[in-house]
Every structure is written in C-alpha cells, then in structure tokens.
C-alpha cells in the first residue's frame, strides 16, 4: 500500500543532512526529469524578476529565491519533516513513533512539483515551486505527467491518492481496481453531500497519521474500509475510483 500526499508551499528551513542526492530518491526512473527541473529552477533564481513572475511571489516571499539558488547545496531533511501547513500540522511528523516513521518510509509518498513523487523519509532541501508555477520554456504538466503516471501505474498494491486536483494533473493515476482517489466531504442531516476545501487538508493529515500509527499494509480497499471505523474515521466508496472521507464540516 502507498499513501500519496500533496506537498505544501510552506516548508521548514535548514536541515542536518548532506545536500540533495537526486539518485537517492524513490522512483529512480524520474532522476533525469528531476535533474533537468532542479537545474532550471536554480538557474532561474539568478533573475529575481523572472523568478517572481514564474513563482507568483509577493514582496514578503523574496527569500524563496535564495532557497532556490541554493537548491543543490543546502542541507536536507526527511520529506515529512520538511513540509508545514494544515495537512502536515495534523500529520505532526515530529511526534510519530519510530515504528510509524519507519512505516512512512516504506508506504508514504509526497508528490513534489520539483521532484515528482518522493518517499516519506527521502531527504530534500527547502525550495519553492508549485504545480501552477510557470517556468520559462518548461511546462510542468508536459514535463511530469507521462513519467509520473507510469511510475504510479507500476507501483505495487493499493494506492490511496490524497493529492489535490492540481497535483493530480502532474501525473494522473490510471484507472485501476487498486487506485483510489480520496475526496473529503461533509454530509448534512438531509443527506446532502458537500466537498470541503480548507478542512479537507486537516482531515487528510488526520487520516494519514492514523494509517502510519496502525502500521497495516492493506492489500485491498475492503481491508482499508473495515479498518477505518476502528480509528474513528468514516470512510466509504464514492463514485467509481473514489473514496469519501466523511467529516464534520466544522472540523
């Protein structure tokens, strides 16, 4: 089983490990794609105005340019410790047990706009690049989609896709009985179903943390659905290829 998360635009600075080693990351078939994009992003940082336009940066975000300039030389930290924001605050990686972190290393993936899908404990630097960034002469969808879809298709077992629509566009998971997209919804007393925006991130973090702590490598979606109530979660099939995580709209 793999759980596939979106990244976050916000990231912790610093790190304690050696600089980025592209050939050490999960899915080595993506190494050359990663190398091309990392080179383009770090080179772009030499032009502040162009970087601001490409990354849609505000006046208070110019430090992100320095991060990108040092992309290949700055220290790294595990993926689950690098990202911050609502989803990752709920995941709260720093308080995971050693067993849960080890499980994350084997079963958790995060889809980076810069590096494609990476493992939960892969070592990455701080950087700034989003799914909708517009690098001169390099479209992210064209750069990533075919190769990312290929590695996701080849990944063995169940894949629970928690990505946002923007990151799905950088590598859709092909329709397959073991590929499930998660949609966070709330249900009113009259049975009306509504998708959530802000609260969906927290719900995904809570679900991911519960999966890491349970440490079960589910073979089938039925096993996942049977487990959910034991973790206090309401998880059910939605339309074809989708699961619904039902939460309180005021989570």
Automatic annotation (TrEMBL):
GO biological process: response to hydroperoxide
Xref: InterPro entries: YaaA
GO cellular component, one term: cytosol
Signal peptide: none
Name the record gives this protein: Peroxide stress protein YaaA
Lineage, top ranks: Bacteria, Bacillati, Actinomycetota, Actinomycetes, Micrococcales
């Amino acid at each position: 089983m793999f759980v596939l998360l979106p990244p976050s635009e916000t990231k912790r600075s610093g790190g304690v490990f050696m600089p980025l080693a592209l050939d050490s990351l999960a899915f080595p078939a993506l190494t050359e794609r990663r190398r091309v994009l990392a080179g383009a992003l770090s080179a772009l940082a030499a032009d502040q105005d162009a970087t601001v336009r490409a990354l849609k940066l505000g006046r208070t975000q110019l430090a992100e340019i320095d991060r990108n300039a040092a992309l290949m030389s700055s220290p790294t930290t595990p993926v689950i410790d690098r990202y911050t924001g609502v989803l990752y605050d709920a995941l709260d990686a720093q308080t995971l047990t050693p067993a849960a972190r080890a499980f994350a290393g084997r079963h958790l993936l995060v889809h980076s706009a810069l590096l494609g899908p990476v493992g939960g404990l892969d070592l990455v630097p701080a950087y700034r690049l989003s799914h909708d960034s517009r690098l001169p002469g390099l479209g992210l969808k064209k750069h990533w989609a075919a190769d990312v879809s290929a590695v996701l298709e080849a990944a063995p077992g169940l894949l629970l896709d928690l990505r946002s629509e923007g990151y799905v566009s950088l590598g859709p998971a092909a329709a397959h009985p073991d590929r499930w997209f998660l949609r966070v919804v709330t249900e009113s007393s009259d049975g009306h179903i509504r998708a959530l925006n802000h609260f969906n991130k927290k719900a995904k973090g809570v679900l991911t943390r519960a999966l890491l702590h349970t440490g079960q490598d589910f073979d089938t979606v039925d096993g996942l659905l049977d487990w959910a109530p034991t973790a206090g979660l309401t998880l059910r099939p939605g339309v074809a290829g989708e699961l619904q995580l039902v939460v309180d709209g005021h989570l």
